[in-house]
Design brief:
alpha+beta; 225 residues; globular; 6 strands; 4-stranded antiparallel β-sheet
């Protein structure tokens, strides 16, 4: 039995600055030769409509998966991030990665020359922006994690999200092989998105939440709404 402790207010605890903690894994330490970079895809989201989630899934299957096949060894950490909130930022799919500046420049160049991305921009379905290469760099592994988390979570969370992102992309690739493409890429990825949603709704509790809870010894967890 898994018990969920619902808490209406956030608990407070002393936060330890990252630089004051000796982390056991060398890759968790500050590395002045690498930093966090990101390519961000702002997706068209019309007023009164639901987000076009299939566009992010399309980017995962047709842009990020092929990119990783070529560039994964250049990246220490990477992840995809999705959000859709009715604010100034809106609906955004992001590819976030930790690498050298040279590798980041190479990845940006590959994305800028991607024919599908060029077409999607011409159709005004998305806009692409890139984090600067040389200014305001986030060089510590924990820098792109939520700053309210304890250092142990901030420094290790990129490992979790990279694994989850790998799983999500692998599911897209497997479903893609079973989904016909005769009716065009948009319809194909709408169907892929539907099947990914079905996997999450039907299997996410056991395959993901249950086993994550087991990893942490089935202890109660605070859920804040």
């Amino acid at each position: 039995m898994i018990f969920l402790l619902v808490m209406a207010s956030a608990c407070t605890s002393k936060r330890v600055p990252l630089n004051d903690v000796s982390l056991p894994a060398p890759e968790m330490a500050k590395n002045t030769d690498k930093a966090w970079y990101a390519a961000r895809f702002s997706l068209n989201w019309e007023a009164g409509e639901e987000p076009k989630w299939y566009l992010g899934t399309l980017l995962g299957g047709e842009v990020i998966n092929p990119l990783l096949a070529q560039a994964a060894q250049q990246l220490t950490y990477w992840r995809v991030h999705r959000r859709a909130v009715r604010d100034q930022t809106g609906h955004v799919f992001s590819f976030i990665f930790y690498s050298s500046e040279a590798s980041a420049a190479d990845i940006y160049q590959q994305l800028q020359s991607n024919k599908l991305l060029v077409l999607l921009q011409q159709q005004e379905l998305l806009k692409v922006s890139y984090d600067p290469l040389t200014t305001d760099l986030h060089r510590v592994i924990a820098d792109t994690s939520d700053p309210v988390w304890p250092v142990e979570v901030r420094a290790s969370w990129p490992l979790f999200m990279m694994g989850a992102s790998q799983m999500w992309l692998a599911q897209i690739e497997m479903i893609k092989q079973e989904t016909p493409e005769e009716q065009g890429v948009a319809l194909r990825y709408k169907r892929i998105q539907e099947q990914v949603t079905e996997l999450w709704q039907q299997q996410g509790q056991h395959a993901l939440m249950h086993h994550l809870s087991a990893l942490y010894a089935y202890q109660p967890v605070a859920i804040r709404f």
